[in-house]
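Last lecture ended with a question: if I hand you only a sequence, what can you say about the shape of the protein? Today we answer it with a concrete record. The protein is 3-hydroxyacyl-CoA dehydrogenase. Below, first the input exactly as provided, then the predicted structure, then a couple of comments.
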Amino acid sequence: MTVAVVGTGIIGSAWAACFLAAGHDVLATDPADGASERLAASLETQLDIATELSGRPATSRGSLRFVRSLEDAVRSADFVQENGPERLDHKVALLAEVDATVRPGVIVASSTSGFAPSLLQGSCRVDPGRVLVGHPFNPAHIIPLVEVVPGQATTTAHADSALDFYRSIGKKPVLVRAEVPGHVTNRLQAALWREAYSLVDRGVATVADIDTAISHGPGLRWAVVGPLTTQHLSGGEGGMRHLLEHLGPPTQKWMDDLGEPQLTPELTDKLVAGIDDEMAGVDQAGLVADRDRLLVDIMRLKRSSHHLP
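The predicted structure:
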């Protein structure tokens, strides 16, 4: 199978690693100067990790070819993953060009973090029903989640095919059943960020304290079973119902008291100063390497379990 990767920045290169590790051939394209060299440099580390997670031998990897022409990249593709800049006008024009070139029935998935697929389909005149969102999470060559978001014109068959394809390369796709800004997971993140920003703004906690509170507290549990199952398990034999009967009223009070911060220049300065303090003396490249290695280890342990959902 041949996959076209349109745009080879941080997300595009990670997608390329995933597809190659799964044994698919990749046709990559990006108009930026030096894009081919940057892609090769990124794949030096990403591809080894993606191959490790795939469980396949390195000898089964697909082939990579970088082409300058968008038409050359997508003309013979069996699946297209678009990763252009997060600008609506740019994506709409890019996807219209892809739609006009790819073969009939080929799914065109956009990695957009928040644009509604119906907006992206608007200028696709040939077959808007095959255009949808396939949103990954950084680092995309490690994190298995992909949000598949159909638009108004997307057919059920194409949405199902996209879900099946992502599963076939080892991803964990979820179907987003309605178009909302930011899809699902970015909205969940935004809810946490909102209160984190508010707590910093009010002087309740520092940036470093908030990072510690999540990464050494609920974040550890969420990485295993997610926040709602965590609640269910906290309810013991009575499960979620028991928990909500006992902790529902105080939880409602906490939710009612959550802040509504505005990202003013002053709050932005507070957040930047806080992260600068937290990162002082930290080898950020080493931090990223440690993060990625631990994520790989977590993924391996999760896959060896027998009862996790």
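Comments.
1. The mean pLDDT is 96.
2. The domain at 2-175 is CATH 3.40.50.720 (Rossmann fold).
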